[in-house]
Amino acid sequence: MNTTDRSLDDAVPDIADDARAGASARSVPDAAVAAPSTNGTGATPAEPTAATESAEPAELMTRVPRRRTTTCADDGHDAAVLAAGALCWRLNRGALEVLLIHRPRYDDWSFPKGKLDPGETLPECAVREVHEEIGLKVRLGMPLPITRYMVGKSGRMKSKEVWYWAAQVTEGKPKPDAEETDEVRWVAVPQAREMLSNDTDRQPLDELERLHEEMRLRTSPFIVLRHAKAKPRASWSKAEGKRPLAATGKRQAKAVERLLTAWRPRMLESSPWKRCVETVAPYVKRHRHRLKYRDSLTEKRALEKPQKPRNRTRKSLEALQPLLMCTHRPVLPTVLEELRDWIRDPELLEALPAEDPYLRPGAVLVAQQAVDRSGTIVAVEVHDPFDD
């Protein structure tokens, strides 16, 4: 057994055990490892929500991302109240339809949305609200315009922002929760524009329609994750591939798992070095996807053969599937260089990190690839962790 094998055993023993049960997972550069399918009792573990993870310390990830498309450049907020929501969409015989909900408390038609829970990020909030209000599991897609307005009573008004994403349904049929929502309808865009009770809600709807007309709406997320905070190099005397996450990094890995659920990547690729494996382990275990170890994503391989990680990135982008790639800071410039070749809009090029360290430990970059534009990247988001 080599050093990398031992580091994987220490990081996530059940994953390493699955690898040995197969055809020697590290005997080839791109080894596939199956995540455990049950919780040890024969029962499939329930999918997490923000509520079930409430015991985790709050604010491990920044609530507000940096988002960039050809029409929006969101970086920070200045509102007293933050909320998030999603415009669930589908094509019905080629015509774009959007999901509207009726809220009996306000007697209005709107989109699923709500305020952030403690410690929650905006993408997490958006998918949670959709699930709670109408019972759907969704994958977030293109960022949509933020709506801004004032809430509260006269003399005690507060500013509010609602951050929206387009979303595709991955599981379930819409069903109102009978509390916040009592009716739900799939409607064509012109009808939705007439039904919406608040003028501000027409802004994200108009953008959704424009994206559809420009073939930018149907997207697949390509996610780049820098491993979470590891133990310092200076204090580590063993093999570099065995250097694990620090205590802060382990907490970040749990926060990353919850954030990644907003995009539900199915293809998972990682450097086999321990700190990367430990970063993706919570997501692998919880969602039971297969993890492929890519030697080409290690620091060593990037230093010896820089073209290897770039080739790997290109092949992964060509797959045009919801995909997560976890790697190291020295590999990021090569990965980002390949991403630039998939961008046609100058505004988006400016959104890609261009200076060292590119991404902070535990940071997530989401590049949306337009399926109907041969995988061209049409949106970029960066989600940063808080400093410990």
Question: Which SSEs are present, and which pair or pack?
Answer:
Layout: H1 3-11, H2 13-21, E1 30-33, E2 66-68, E3 73-75, E4 81-92, E5 95-103, E6 108-110, E7 113-115, H3 122-134, E8 137-151, E9 158-171, E10 183-188, H4 189-195, H5 202-213, E11 219-226, H6 247-260, E12 267-270, H7 274-287, E13 291-294, H8 299-304, H9 307-319, E14 323-327, H10 332-340, H11 346-349, E15 364-370, E16 377-383
Parallel strand pairs: 4-9, 11-14, 12-13, 12-14
Antiparallel strand pairs: 1-13, 2-3, 2-16, 4-5, 4-7, 5-6, 5-10, 8-9, 11-15, 15-16
Walk me through what this model shows.
It is a single chain. The chain has 388 residues and is α+β, with helices and mostly antiparallel strands. The protein folds into 2 domains: 3-34 and 219-383, Phosphoglycerate mutase-like (Rossmann fold, 3-Layer(aba) Sandwich), CATH 3.40.50.1240; 77-213, Alpha-Beta Complex (Nucleoside Triphosphate Pyrophosphohydrolase). The chain has helices spanning 3-11, 13-21, 122-134, 189-195, 202-213, 247-260, 274-287, 299-304, 307-319, 332-340, 346-349; strands at 30-33, 66-68, 73-75, 81-92, 95-103, 108-110, 113-115, 137-151, 158-171, 183-188, 219-226, 267-270, 291-294, 323-327, 364-370, 377-383. It has a 9-stranded mixed sheet with strand order 1-13-12-14-11-15-16-2-3, sandwiched between helices. Strands 4, 5, 6, 7, 8, 9 and 10 form a 7-stranded mixed sheet that branches. Helix 7 (274-287) links the parallel strand 12 (267-270) and strand 13. Helix 1 packs across helix 7, helix 6 (247-260) crosses helix 7 (274-287) and helix 9 packs across helix 10 (332-340). The radius of gyration is 21 Å and the shape is globular. The protein starts with a helix and ends in a 5-residue tail after the last strand. Residues 1-58 have low confidence and may be disordered.
